[in-house]
Specification:
With about 250 residues, this protein is α+β, with helices and mostly antiparallel strands. Among the domains are: about 80 residues; about 100 residues, no CATH class. Strands 4, 5, 6, 7, 8, 9 and 10 form a 7-stranded antiparallel beta sheet that branches. The chain has a 3-stranded antiparallel beta sheet with strand order 1-3-2. The longest helix is centred in the N-terminal third of the chain and has 13 residues. The protein is elongated and about 120 Å long. The protein starts with a helix and ends in a 5-residue tail after the last strand.
Length: about 250
Amino acid sequence: MISGSSAKTNTDSTTGSLSYINDLVTGATTSGSYSIVVPRTLMNEAMATNLRSVYGYNVTKRHDNMGTNDSYLISWGNNDDPTPTPTSTPTSTPTVTPRPATATPTPTPTNSPTDTPTATPSPTPLPATATPTPAPATATPVATVAPTATPVPSIYQSYNYSISATDLAAATGNTGALVGYNNKVVVVITNGYNCGNTTERNFVYSFSAVGSSYISWLISRKTDVPVLGYYKDNVLVTTGLISTQTANPSVPC
């Protein structure tokens, strides 16, 4: 068993390196997750600041057990849509059917006997009824159909990746600042755009697992196609790769 001082040295060297955080994020995206929680024993404020300003992640410090046990929530990509508040169905107002007016009964006249019959007057002829002039026909207006707006094409492009075990195995011999890219395939992004961070920037994203991969927020300008390759002996290799990068017709944002 190693000594206590050696164990502390190993822990301190891990806390301060983004290589371990990168492996956690890569594993989470492979399983379809959009966030991870990292304890403070493996992460510090300097790393949190670096993840926010350089790589565009959302990093939130959390406190458990009344603030004595800190951790960090690292998130990326989509946020869950809020649950809509249902709108109550209005109660239809019944239409009141008007009641017919009550007719006032006309009293039946009582015939009074007349001794002398009265002559019946001759009726006055009614004037001739004038033929009404028909109203001019009203033209029916024709509805105008609004033109359909043409969608503005996106200037961004997303990509599908297929990572080869051969390329992962060839990525060796890297030292110094590039030691974290051993056994990893990388994609160099120019003018990259994160859906959660609207600032374009340049960065390197690495893959450490074999198989197909699609990262929804990893997009860039169509005029700046990402460069796929791997580092070997501190040199970026971009030719003779078995891993592939193909354009995806869907751009998430």
